[in-house]
Amino acid sequence: MSTDPVSADFPICSAKGCRAAAVWVLAWNNPKLHTPERRKTWLACEEHREHLSKFLGVRGFLKDVVTLGEWEGRASGEGRGSAADG
Ligand SMILES: [Zn+2]
User: What distance in angstroms lies between residue 13's CA and the mean position of ligand 1's atoms?
Assistant: First the structure.
């Protein structure tokens, strides 16, 4: 699966068993696995945002929590030209 969940037609929450529409993007980075500028993303519905944020937060992985719309705006606005991530 190389498909970016954020750009899926119907992004859904990343919480296990949840099929709710995603509202939030949690950007995270595991320093043991990823270079510092790398961002992995999880999606969260309103209900699971806090749960997932906490999960990443206690591990020190969480970098950013933004709305899906804001994240998409950023991604298209940066224009880094890197399609290799993921
Ligand atoms: Zn959810």
Answer: 5
The pLDDT tens digits for 23-73 are 999 999 999 999 999 999 999 999 999 999 999 999 999 999 999 999 989
Cα angle, residue 64 at apex, residues 62 and 67 outer, rounded to 5°: 130
> At residue 49, what is the residue type?
R
**In sequence order, what are the beta bridge partners of 2?**
none
Quickly count: other Cβ atoms within 10 Å of residue 5's Cβ.
Answer: 16
Q: Which residues surround ligand 1, an ion (CB under 5 A)?
A: 13, 15, 18, 20, 45, 48
> Is-contact 33 55, C-beta < 8 A?
no
